[in-house]
Structure formats: structure tokens, C-alpha cells
TrEMBL record, chains A, B:
Residues involved in ATP binding: 227, 331-334, 405, 420
Active-site residues, Swiss-Prot/TrEMBL: 400
Protein name: FAM20 C-terminal domain-containing protein
One Gene Ontology MF term: ATP binding
GO biological process, one term: enamel mineralization
Main location: Golgi
Transmembrane annotation, as ranges: 6-25
Native species: Muraenolepis orangiensis (Patagonian moray cod)
Cofactor(s) needed by this chain: Mn(2+)
Ranges where the FAM20 C-terminal domain occurs: 295-512
Entry keyword Transmembrane helix: yes
Similarity annotation: Belongs to the FAM20 family.
Amino acid sequence: MRRDRILLATTLMVVFTADLYFVLLPKLQDFRRGQGSRCSCGQANSSLPGQGGLASPWLSGSTGYPRDSTEGDPEDGGSKLGRLFAHPLYNIQTPTLGPEERLLQAGKLIDYYDKKVSRWERHMVLYNEAAGASNVTMTQQKVNFDPEVSWLKFHLGINRYSLYSRDDPAVEQLLRDMHTLPIISTDYTQDEKALKGVCDCEQVVKPSGHHLKLALKMKDFGKAMFKPMRQQRDEVPSEDVFYFVDFQRHNAEIAAFHLDRILDFRRVPPAVGRLVNITGEVLHITHNQDLRNVFFTSPAKNTCFFSKCLYVCKTEYAVCGRPDALEGSLSAYLPRLSQAPRVSIPSPWIRSYTFDGRRDWEVNPFYCDTIKQTYPYNSGNRLLNIIDMSVFDFLMGNMDRHHYELFTNFGDEGFLLHLDNARGFGRPSEDVMSILAPLTQCCVIKRSTLLRLRLLSRPRYRLSDVMRESLGGDPLRPILTEPHLLALDRRLRRVLEEVERCVMQLGEEQVVTADFARSTDPPPAATT
Amino acid sequence: MRRDRILLATTLMVVFTADLYFVLLPKLQDFRRGQGSRCSCGQANSSLPGQGGLASPWLSGSTGYPRDSTEGDPEDGGSKLGRLFAHPLYNIQTPTLGPEERLLQAGKLIDYYDKKVSRWERHMVLYNEAAGASNVTMTQQKVNFDPEVSWLKFHLGINRYSLYSRDDPAVEQLLRDMHTLPIISTDYTQDEKALKGVCDCEQVVKPSGHHLKLALKMKDFGKAMFKPMRQQRDEVPSEDVFYFVDFQRHNAEIAAFHLDRILDFRRVPPAVGRLVNITGEVLHITHNQDLRNVFFTSPAKNTCFFSKCLYVCKTEYAVCGRPDALEGSLSAYLPRLSQAPRVSIPSPWIRSYTFDGRRDWEVNPFYCDTIKQTYPYNSGNRLLNIIDMSVFDFLMGNMDRHHYELFTNFGDEGFLLHLDNARGFGRPSEDVMSILAPLTQCCVIKRSTLLRLRLLSRPRYRLSDVMRESLGGDPLRPILTEPHLLALDRRLRRVLEEVERCVMQLGEEQVVTADFARSTDPPPAATT
């Protein structure tokens, strides 16, 4: 409990300082500037919900866009990303974690990994004999047990606050390892296998591209989900394509990891780009004959593969290397469900996934009142976490968040995992306001989230700039085109405007929720 | 027989004049220019097959590229298309046709049409009652029987030489009618209906796009096949896409009609572009509930429809209006199979339609020797007709000519119909030499075809220019982009080079076949 109290005190200090700096100071300066601008605000206020109030000077001030001289030169050189991560808001001390606040026990995981390595070595002998007998090309890799590997550290670092800590060196190492380590085995992912034998289009909402992802096992036994490139960086999906049949974009998967980290959520598993040789690093090392069977050579002599469900008649859906090299995103696997069970819950703001269906939230302006009274959204942080996620999804334009997942170990108060982000970053010119419905309908937001959003809206820490810098570290840079990066700034402004609209309607106390204190509640007993 | 003799005499006169002008005159001029150029020809000859001999002056002369002063200014204004159609080669008099040389008897067809109009009027009363009862929007059109309609004249004009005569005014009228007349009814085409209930991807080689075509009935009871726009004019299919899953291009269907007419084959049914309102002119007037069911509104509020076979999971394959207007090609229907039976025969140069299969013709350099000894290619014009078709397909880059059709009424010597050309005009930068295999492997070509190809390779009648002019008359102009038009000239040169290569190997007598005389053989008795 003493640790909690120290954390509470530190947190409140930071919140107070930030509040003073971002909210009170600009308001005081506004006040000193006199009546002129106040007048225009008065006019703007009445028409705000309709106009969005983008150009209102009062809004500019209070949404974190102070243009005062204390800002300094926004282009004063140096790393904006470094400056962001050095900011007090990104340096709130996390308490030392007790064993019940960690997702996994080191001993169990290391034992499991050790056994897997031994079994792999035994199986490889058999596989090689079988491959030799059936004349199949098979590349073999030596594997070793090493308790210092990055994926193990990543798994052991997952705790009740986030998937990884801000300064965890294992994350950077994991990105490097996923990019460089030899791949020793490839297979369909579990959800692909679950579909085996039931490739019925009528029953699957979104088969296109969806099932082209693969599970890659690296030499250090780390696993990554591979999503191949389906679309050029500057291609924009047709406006007539429904979100649920849109391509999955490997670069969106990578950009989502960076955006989530910059928003300080840390709920997206590390993701990195890699140029994969689909012949040598996929076809020749898979033990799955079904997977081998979907490879073919295109008329242009490139190696291609397609989804099993769309066999023969759907080679348009195939992806092809040039001639073997194919870009893709590699996302770190989370611990196995047997080690760390997760639950998948439909989002209360799920879309209808049909041509013309409409969900209650789309037609009922008081939808959130019902949700607020419904378990598990009627207490704790769950609704605020949903709203965090909606801000994250709105910034990248991802309409496809039908479910969310959380680790059952951390009970109802666990953080929401932001998995499967490949349908983000589609149309940079469009702001899909309905993605923000949880925020705009409920009019609540965590104070910590709001403060970070305001920070990122300032020229010194401008979201597009820190994203550009962060993505510049990926091997497949550039990950996002400029229109996508600039869309982030525009959308961020719209989020802050929506918050401002709520504050004006309901008052800051109703809207902006002090969340830091709550997150230090003792963790509930694990449910599994 | 007398008529035949007149035709034979006229034809031989024209051939002789053309030969004199295109072959003998340039050769004489070459000779007069002295030894210099002859020397370089001697060198070029030995390496011709390998190099293609594109730059050889001797080839230039004999492939119809004389650059002598008698050519006149190639850009001397006026209509090149008019000049082409005024050329003697395009003015060989067709004999008066006997009744057995026409496809249809006027009386029978007019009776049939009259009955259809009466039945339509009766049915419309019933449909309107049913539509009113089930609250379905139904647009009604008054129809009249009129023996002067253009589609009727087109059908009655089909004869043993071609689908239409060069100067038939009914063709221009038919194009105008298909473009402007109200559409009174829409439905799936017969082959679409034949698939009903067996939408099994594994059994259909090429379902994509293939089944989005519709049958439109016009106010004058003429019928047209509608192929909607799937691709922008400047879009180029990926090199990894197999020809048999390539999109069907409405503009290729239109351009193919013009190309076929310019080549003087006249074996493609008239085709014209039209901006169709898919709500008012398709959805609201169809009596087919299945067709109504595939319409939906896209996220961008456009009206769209998709193929029944690809229901739900394949809305990516849908086509959409803006919001209702959709470009498409309208190709005139041929007479019903019950009136004029046709037979569909696999091309001897059919492709394998699998990922890696290879047909005999692709690996056996002596394939044509076998074909030449096989019925129906061992006598008559059939092989020469196939070679005409391969030249036509090569010029537009159409790899999808798996079958050809002919009217059984005209027996073995009937002309080949050049139907279904929508997979032409894909990649303008590529010349798919394998399409020319019938010509390059058999080394024969009709003299009449060769003379026209040579004419079209001359600046005065340049193929790209006459095509540009001809396509300029279509309501959806421009139909082809400049790269596609210029590709025609390049490909035409390659055809002439291949003929030249054959002539050098085998001599002109072996290669260039006098076809005019043969086409005046008396028609065989109708087989059905």
C-alpha cells in the first residue's frame, strides 16, 4: 500500500504541474489579451457543434495550441521524439512491480521454451528424413536455447499497466531480431487453421487478404505474425469498398505500433518491417503441405502465394514477390493462450458488417447512457480504455475494431490490447468521425490521455513530426506517405475539438477524468 | 456461277494492282537507288530471324514501309479513315447475295419479332400488377413493332462473307440506337443463367468480372450485351495476373469492333459505349429478382452490383455507378441460336488455363504440321481464318481466345466470329508474341489480309491514326489511351516482320495465299 501512496503522490504532482502549464497558463494569457478575442469566442460558441469550431481562437488556446512566446522555436532542431519521451508526462515513475502484477512467471516460461527447443531438435531429424525421401527442398537451421533472447524478455515484461515499459531495451532488441534473425519455420496462423475445410464465403465476413497472414518462427524461437504487402504506400482504397473487405496494409500494422507507443498506450505488440524471401524463408522451410500447395509462379515469373480459401479462381488475391522478395510486417506474438489467457469482447460500438445494417449506436444519440449503466462499463476504467482505443483508431482511420482483447489475468481492470491494426491508414483525406463515437457520445476522457494529446498538438512535439521520426527507424521506411502523416495532425485537432465541445456542454469535471489514481488500485485476483 | 466469275475477275484485278503498287514498285525503286542499300540488306538477311530485322531497309520496303516521294505528305490533312475506306482494297465489289448466302430469311425473323412484341405487351400487364402488389418500383416503356429497326437490318445483313457489309448504313444506325434508345428490360445473360446454382469456384476457371455482364433489351427490341467499366483507361493489369483472371475491359470491347472493321474482317458485332444509369436503366426495369438482389449501396452512397457467384464476401468485385451512372460497352446481340445456330470450337492454339500447364503448341515447334493435316484445318480457309484471328488478337494483346465460333449455316467455310474481346488492350508496353503462334508456326497468311496490313503500316493510313479517328466517334471517347494506340503500330510492324521472316525461309508463294478466289466458292448446304 505504501508503494501505491508514493505513486499516487507523484502522479498527482505531475498532473497538477501539467494542468497548470497547459490549461491555467493559456487561459490566463487569453484573459490578459483582452475582450476582442473573447467576443469572437462568444459568437463561435453558439455554433460550435455544427461548425466544429476549428478556427475559434478560444478553442485554439484551450485545445493545447498556445502560440505564445514560451513555446520556443518549434523548429529548433534536435529530436522531437527524444524531446517527447523526455517530457515529464512520459516519465511518470512506474512502481516496482509485484509478482502478481506481471503476466508471466519467468521459471515456467523458460522451462516451456527449453522443452520446445529440445522437441524441435528431435523433430528436425524426422522432418529431414521425410523431406529427403519425398525429394522436397528443406533448409535447416541450428537452434540453441538462450534465456537472454529478446522475445522472452518482452513476454516477461508484460504487466498490468502495458505490454512493455517505456525504457525497456528488450523492445528495441526485439524489433532488430524480428528484422534480422533467420526464419526457421513458417505456417498458417491459428485462425487460418481454424477455417480449414470450411472455406464458405457466405459464412466469413472478410476472407479477402485476411487469411494471407503467416506465422513465422525465428531462429531464437520468437514468433511473429507476417502480413504481406498488398498495396503500394500511395494507393488509396476505393470509396466504394466496405471497410470489412478492405486490404490489410502491412505498413499500417507497423505505423500503428509506433503511434500507440507515441500515445504512450503501449498496447500494440512490437511490429517491424522486413523484406522476406518467400521462396527461401517461407516455402522452403514450412512443414505444412497445405501452405506449400498455395505457392505458384506468376506469368511474370514471380513467386506468389494465395489464401487457401480462395483457391484457383482467386489468384487476383495472391501476393507476389519480386521475384521472391516481398515486404511485410512482423508483429511479435503474445504469449500462448495456455500461458496467458485472453478474452475477446465485442466492442459496444461494433459496426454491422453488412451492406445496409445499422447498429443501435449509429441511430441512438443516447446510446452511451445505456452503456454507462451496463457491466463492465458501469465501473472502473473499461469505458475510458474504450475511448482511448477509439482515439487511437480515429487517428489512423481504422473502422474495423469489432472486438477488443484483454488478458484475463489482470481481471476487469486490465488494459485493452490494440491488436490487428492493418485496416488503418487507408484514406488520408477522410476523417471518419463515427470512429470517435465512444468519445463524442460519452463525453469522457482520461486526463492523462488528454494531456498527451494536447502535448502532441503543439509544434514542439507535433504528432506528424514525432511519427515521421519514429517510423524513420523502420527498415522499410518510409512507412507512411506525407498525406497520412499530416492527416494525424488534422485528426488530432478534431479529437481535441470534440473534447472541447464536451467540456463546454458539461464542464471539465464531468468530462476529464483523473485516471492516474485509479490505475494504482491493487490488482484484482486473476480470473484464470 | 456468272456472279462468281465477275467477282473473281474483279478481285484478281485489285490484287494485281495492289501487288504492283506495294511490292513491285518499291522493289524497282530500291533497285534504282543502287548497290549501297542492297549491301546492308545482304548482311541483315542472314541475321533476320534472330534480330527481327526491324531496321533493315529491305524489310522496310517489302513490309509496306516505302518512304518514297510518291507517298505524299503523311500528314496532309483530311480523314485518314475516309482515305482508307476509299482505297481500292476496301472497295472490292461484293456480289449480289443469293438467299442461301444470307444467314436469315426476312419473313421468319420479322414474324418472330412481331410475336415477341405482342407477348411483351401481354406480359407487361401482368408484371405491373405483380410489381404494384409487392411495392416494387417498375418503369414501363411503350413498345411498337417496326420492321425498319436497325438491329433487324443488321441481322438480315449477315451473310457468308461477314457480319455486315462495308457500306451498310444499318451498322451506324445500330450504334446510334444502342447508345440512345431507352432500355426496357435487363437480365443476366444466358451463360450467367446457366451457372445458376453451381457457383463453385473450383469448377469455373474465370469467374471474376466474367459474370458481371448483363443483357439489355432496347425499346426497339434490339438486344445488347452490357459490360460495365471495371478499370480506368490508363490502368494496367499487374504482370502477376493470369490472363484468365484479368478484368474484362469495356473499352477493349469497343476498340475491338473498330479494329476489326479497320482490318476489314467485319467479324465483331457492332459495339458502342454508353453511360448507363444502373438504377433507372437496370435495377428498376429488370424482372429478375436474383438480379435485383445483387444491387447495394456502397459506403460512398453509390449504387453498385456484383456477380451472384461471388455473393457477400466479394464486394471488392462489385462495380459502382457515380452515383448511378456507369460506363459500359453495348455489343449487338447476334440472332438467337434457334434462328442461326453457331458452333463453338476450341482453338488449336488454346492456352492451358492453369498455373503451370503447357500445351503442345507451346513446346512443339512442328505443331502446325500436325494441325495442317487435321480436319478441318487440312483444307479450305479455316487455318487462314485462324491466322487472321491471331493477327487481330496479337494487335490488341488478347491472350484469352480459347474458343472460336462460326455459324453452322455456312458450313466449314464460314467466317470465324471474333466474339468476346474484353481482355484485349491490357498492357500497351508488351507484345505477347505467343498470340501470333498460328502465323509464326504455320507461316501462311491470306494475301488480302497481308495487303491490308501493309497498307495500314504506311504513314498515309497509319493504323494508330485511323483507329484514333474511328474511336473518336464513340460517345465514351477517348476509348484507348495513346500508349495503346501506338502499340498497334509497333505490333503491326512485328506481324509484318514475322511474315517477312516466313517469306525469306519458304518463299512468297508458300507463305502468301491467294484467298480471294476461294472465298467465291459456292456455299455448302446449311448443316442445320
